[in-house]
Design goal:
Largest sheet: 5 strands, mixed
Structural class: alpha/beta
Distance between the termini: 28 Å
Shape: globular
Order of helices and strands: EHHHHEEEEEHEEH
Strand content: 15-25%
Number of domains: 1
Number of helices: 6
Helix content: 25-40%
CATH class: Alpha Beta
Length: 201
């Protein structure tokens, strides 16, 4: 049985596995927090700015092949990425791709002053997805980055290596196993304010 894991799952999963599963199963409605809504506005603003600076469409295939210095915001150009990892379909949209002298930087924008582990794994997730879709990227230096969307300050970055690939694949497998019912989620650390337990609703 195929399951789909989205990049955004990694952030929710890192905060609370029980709440993440409850939302995936429809037992708890997703309610965006003021911080998430502010983050969405920042993302839209950055996308609009990118489109204003690039009035002509950018061909993604040419962007990937060209390796010319420059940036691309996939959400602004309505790109979607899906790749297969064994029995798991990966889906997501990186916030920004940027080529510079050192290689390809995969940037995850957040309305946060801290790079949580879930955010780091989102950035690694995009590196993995792009390498699965474009094997030639395996020969290119790639970097996972988390950036504050308001200040544009880089909060965290690391080279994408075999170790970071294994780290994110391990997390993806955890999500798959919980979705399939093979293992139970880790009990919530944020009770009583986080999520009702299954059977309590």
């Amino acid at each position: 049985m195929n399951v789909t894991v989205r990049a955004s799952d990694l952030g929710s999963f890192d905060y609370c596995q029980e709440k993440w599963l409850a939302m995936k199963q429809g037992r708890v409605a997703f309610t965006p927090s003021p911080q998430l809504e502010a983050g969405a506005r920042l993302h839209r603003s950055l996308d609009e700015q990118f489109l204003a600076e690039h009035p002509h469409s950018i061909d993604f295939e040419e962007f990937i092949k060209g390796e010319q210095e420059g940036n691309l915001r996939p959400q602004a150009t309505r790109l979607r990425f899906r790749a297969q990892l064994g029995d798991i379909q990966l889906a997501g949209i990186p916030d920004e791709l940027c080529y510079n002298q050192r290689g390809l930087n995969i940037i995850e924008d957040k309305n946060s002053l801290r790079a949580y582990d879930g955010y780091k794994n989102q950035a690694r997730f995009y590196c993995l997805t792009l390498q699965l879709l474009y094997p030639r990227l395996a020969t290119l230096n790639m970097y996972s980055m988390v950036r504050n969307a308001a200040s544009m300050q880089i909060l965290w970055e690391e080279p994408y290596t075999a170790e970071s690939r294994n780290t994110v694949i391990s997390e993806i497998h955890k999500l798959r196993d919980i979705l399939m019912g093979f293992v139970k989620p880790t009990p919530c650390k944020h009770l009583p304010t986080c999520v009702p337990r299954q059977g309590d609703t």
